[in-house]
Amino acid sequence: MRDYSNHIQHRDADRDVEITDITAHVVEGNFEWNIIEIETDAGVTGIGESYRGGGVPELVEYTKRFLLGENPLDVERLFRQIVQEMSGHGGTTGKVVTAASGIEIALWDAAGKILDVPVYQLLGGKFRDEVRMYCDCHAGEAYAVEDGATAYAEAEAYSPEAYANEARRVLDLGFDALKFDLDLEMDNDPDPFNGRLSNEAIEHKRQIVEAVREEIGYDVDLAFDCHWDYSVESAKRLAHELEEYKLMWLEDLLPPENMSAQIEVNGSTTTPTATGENRFRVHELSELIYEHGVDIVTPDPTTVGGLSETMRIADRAEENYMPISPHNVCSPIGTMACVHLGAAIPNFDVLEFHALEVDWWDDLVTRDEALIQDGYIEVPEKPGIGVELDRDVLEEHRFEGPS
């Protein structure tokens, strides 16, 4: 194991800072949000967020064995140290990288506060003053998450009219970019395992897309998510049927592992495709980008390795004239980290908002007004990521485990 001690010793006194504690809080929103805090002996606390779900708090606790006493300003070195120290725990992928992502974001927040600059400045500067959001509408009221798993409604709830009505409602909230889930329970009929879509299922999806387009017109960006459900031939057939509706993208048509299959589908259609949210670190996205297996790359900064790793992915995408639209199912903490990322990336397009049903979402941070205004978030000029936790709201919604 590589020894990192005594290699980094010399810096000015005002930047000679140490990490004194690292804590993970789990908040019960529409998902289980993993909020990470890093305390320092400078009186500064950095906050970040790791992707939702279990396992992260235990891994964050483990990192205290080697991160306490380190300087939080060495953000990229400490991320690499986590990967190295936890290589035997699967440190190059999976939950270790997810936990490291939230720690990395908290380190950036702490660094910004210590140096008295916003995070976007540390990432290289600003390309835009506000970040455009797209609203994930699920499948209208027909979709929910129960104990972390998809819960479907009765089949009649998935009518094209229901989708169109929800599109109109969200459009009236000020968003001009929308995404819906297009994978439905009926996709599993007659066989739940082989990934094939029947003609009836494809026609139903086409009718949904048509109904939404008729309701909102073509000046609104519209995407649909398929959640990795289909075979290559079904993905091709579906994408072909939807070409006339000029989608912003069709997301995650295939299971994520096979690059050749992604390339095959992407090359078969004029419907833009998007994927990337369940890949880890730049290595798992490089081939996808360089071989043009996707049109819009969608890494999740709270999964893929944090802000620096997402910047590396964005660089490769820019080399290939490809936009990046980060996946984001976070609380306001992870969302605001992504806003700074969106400010600093030239080829950034839109950022996901995935908590429309959480009416207290904004309350988790101390603010007088909603973060999202008419479908945009203003890039903050405060040090760090620009928001602070509301402790009372955090405690009110703290996740206590399965009932």
From TrEMBL:
Pfam families: MR_MLE_C, MR_MLE_N. Residues 160-272 form the Mandelate racemase/muconate lactonizing enzyme C-terminal domain. This is L-alanine-DL-glutamate epimerase. One of its GO terms (biological process) is amino acid catabolic process. GO terms for molecular function: lyase activity. Keywords: Lyase. The keyword Lyase applies. The keyword Lyase applies. PROSITE patterns: MR_MLE_1. PANTHER family: D-GALACTONATE DEHYDRATASE, D-GALACTONATE DEHYDRATASE-RELATED. SMART domains: MR_MLE (SM00922).
